## 1
Amino acid sequence: MRQDFSQAVRAVFFQTDCDEFLYATDGGTLFLVSFQAKLYALTCKHAFGTFEPRQLFITQEKNAQKDSKPAPIKGRHFPSRPVDGAADTDVVDLCAVSFEDQISAEFFHGTPYVIENGTVGTSRPGHRLLVCGVLKSKSQIIPPDITMGFCQLEFHDTGPCMFDPFLRQAVAQFRQPEFNDVTGISGSPVFDKTAGRLCGMVVRGGMIGDKCRIFYMDISDIVRFLEGIRAGARNTYYTKVIETENRSLDVSDWATRRFAP
């Protein structure tokens, strides 16, 4: 199945109670998926920023149109009370938004990414990755216009994260970039261009000069999370085996500095 993952992307923004500025955002990206015949929007919990979950406005189209209808939201799900190897990790930042039962893929013009065997898989070191998200610095909401700074960035996977079993790392060096940071790409889908399948979701990232590093959640853990939601499970417990390779990685000092959402 050939799918355009970039069309599943939406900006995280909110409807306010202020008539003068009806819409606002703290930055962030979400993407639509279909899993076991149910639709979800995946993002990071921290992308909600200072806004209430009830204010989330998910548009039908990738580029919000005037009078676009928001998707009716049923609930918001995220991991809680992590234990053992999951304690003190970024797994608690994973968030899935569910929709009312009458909402189908047709509501979003068929753009949700279908998660099934063959369409997802863990990346490997050296694989070329594509990240499609929203750069906050390139976005603006000036009523009545909403302009979102959609981007598609290429990275290279550098393997599992050393301090979090749910995360992998990827790096990039951009040639004369027209942006100074990657704030806003949290929640963006990560597509393994080498393998031709979805491999995760950006959780955090940082940029110094033309160099950028991201940490992204492995798709295998996202699928486990969705399985738990779909089954109505109160708890999900599993053992994860992380494969590593002996590779010389370019871990520069800029990678240890503060990371933006």
Note: The domain at 5-234 is CATH 2.40.10.10 (Thrombin, subunit H).
## 2
Amino acid sequence: MKEKCDRTKCPFLDSPFPDCYCSQMSSQVTDKVIKFCGGNYEECNIYKKYWVNPEASPSVLSF
């Protein structure tokens, strides 16, 4: 049985980092945008990178 995915969006979606999948929006990353930005963001390596080190960008503090 599949795990139910978290339906909340990534907190960085409104103000994404340059390396976020949603900033790149191409057919090569569409599956990752749907998977990570639209739900399972806590599994995303980009999310983990900035969440572990919130000082990496001031936009983290704005959400």
Note: DSSP finds three helices and no strands in the chain.
## 3
Amino acid sequence: MRWIITLLLAAGLTRAQQPRAYVLGQPVTGQRPGTPVQPEPWKAVAGQIQRALIENYSRKHGLEPTAQEVAALRARMKAATAGTVVRNAADELRETLIRNGVDEQTARRQARAFSAEESSRDEQFVLSLIRYWKFGRALFQKHGGRVRLSAFGFQDPMDAMERFLIEEEKLGNFSIPDPEFRAKVWAVFQDKTGGDGTVSGARAAEVFARPPWEQPLR
């Protein structure tokens, strides 16, 4: 029985590692090495396709974040939290580990590793926020349509994004060989739920009138 289970798990892992789509000539599995098999891999594949296409479009059209924009957004984020006492998460982790019997040297090493990972995630968040705002503005100016709002700062020109994806698929910039899996990925692309409301017309244009790093604090 154990060898049967092993074979089934191996078969599931092999399927998860097989390409489910191709974007800009690169295979997409929807699975990161060493992570559990995704129960709904089409969602991960949809995200990977969108991310690759957005980054490619941004490079081609000069929409990559600049050092000045990154600095301005960081300054605005810092000003927004001025006066708020925020404990260092790495210090909290170190103290928790020590309280749970981990020796101080090991606790410090793990806290430093956590801090480095946290800094990397923070950097990626800032870059993504700037890149997606500039990309979203470019698409909205081209196609118009509704914009989905987000409290996290990501404004999604959802109708323009769908038209962009249709164009990119027609150009062959991504493909999904399995028709059934393709239908599931497109259901994710066309999902208009979620977010913190939608706007259109003049209100949608206002969203992209001024970048978030130049907007006044409220």
Note: Residues 1-14 have pLDDT under 50 and may be disordered.
